[in-house]
Amino acid sequence: MPRYIAHLDMDAFYASVELLRYPELRGRPVVIGGGRRHQPKVGADGTRRFALLRDYVGRGVITTATYEARALGVHSGMGLMKAAALAPDAVLLPTDFDAYRHYSRLFKAAVAEIAPVIEDRGIDEIYIDLTDVPGAQEVVGHDPMGGVRAVALAIKNNVKQATGLSCSIGVAPNKLLAKLCSDLDKPDGLTLLRAEELTTRLWPLPAKRIHGIGPKTSEKLLALGIRTIGELAAADPAWLAQHFGPRHGAWLHEAAHGRDERPVVTHSEPVSMSRETTFERDLHARHDRELLGRIFTRLCQQVADDLARKGYVGRTIGIKLRFDDFKTVTRDHTLEQYTADAQVIRHAAGQCLKRVDLQRRLRLLGVRVGSLRKAGPLPPITAPQVQALRPASTLPLFGDPDDGV
What we know:
Elements: E1 5-10, H1 13-21, E2 30-34, E3 41-42, E4 48-49, E5 51-52, E6 64-65, H2 67-70, H3 80-86, E7 91-94, H4 97-112, E8 118-120, E9 125-129, H5 146-163, E10 167-172, H6 175-182, E11 190-192, H7 198-202, H8 215-223, H9 229-234, H10 237-244, H11 246-256, E12 272-283, H12 289-310, E13 312-323, E14 328-339, H13 342-353, E15 362-370, E16 373-374, H14 383-386
Parallel strand pairs: 2-7, 10-11
Antiparallel strand pairs: 1-9, 1-10, 2-6, 3-4, 5-7, 8-9, 12-15, 13-14, 13-15, 13-16
Helix pairs in contact: 4-5, 10-11, 12-13
């Protein structure tokens, strides 16, 4: 019995959610990544006025963009100022992660109604094992994959009905090939691949299309004269090991031949949860203490909310700082007891902050909680921990007033 693994990827997910809210923007280049100040303004006549990328000033980056914006050369991870030079008339909208998480839950529930064996890979993508879904193994007419095609189409229709959004699905014998296929016919695509079609359909593609081959590996392959997946498959494994190391070289050989035995994992425990933000201008621990303090407290509250929503507690509290010279530092502090309390997290993160030289201006600030376990009855808080529960208003704004910054 053939194995059918699907990879489902929502199309321009964040941007598509925003278009549900602002349907008048359909067909226009739209970029997601602004702050709250980029919320649309409602005029006296009830029409909405949107911020344009040409007017953006700051150091934010694109979270995602509509396909119309991508056609102009902008993409996720690009700086908004650089994108403004390419697409000055693109609409700029702020991110709304609460809305994105809501639609993420909706589309995954819609998939589970048809195919319950799901591996969650993030807010906008999943793997699905379709092998044992009723009807998937049926041959329809002369199409050996007619049954699984019908199942995949039913999933796409169910997602559309539940969310109003489109998705792209790749179906193949394993996760590696399914991930590659889901990106071949976006948006709203459906690509099915049989094992015997690997050489004709995938080998002509650039090697960088394989998930796991990043920019550095791709550049090195090109320098060695390997451009396509087929050329990578033809390379001698010993030669690959010589240039990329034994493990990575062996993986490159296996991946080019479409080999992947990984199962669809229906449940995995998160290692940590974190929140971070990049500032629109560099901030200084002394001159911008109050603003940084508010941001710091908000990040701690957001992480605490994430823990509570997903039912976890953690012991290791960490911070991440990136300075104006792009140097990044991290600090961790391990508590005696597990927690999901925002004030406890804030106090422990503040202790981490004392161990950092804050003379340079900051570009980025992040808070992380690790060493997670499922929430359950917690032991009583001991006397030394009471100090950590002091009201947020009495916490240092950012850093300690006595630390000289």
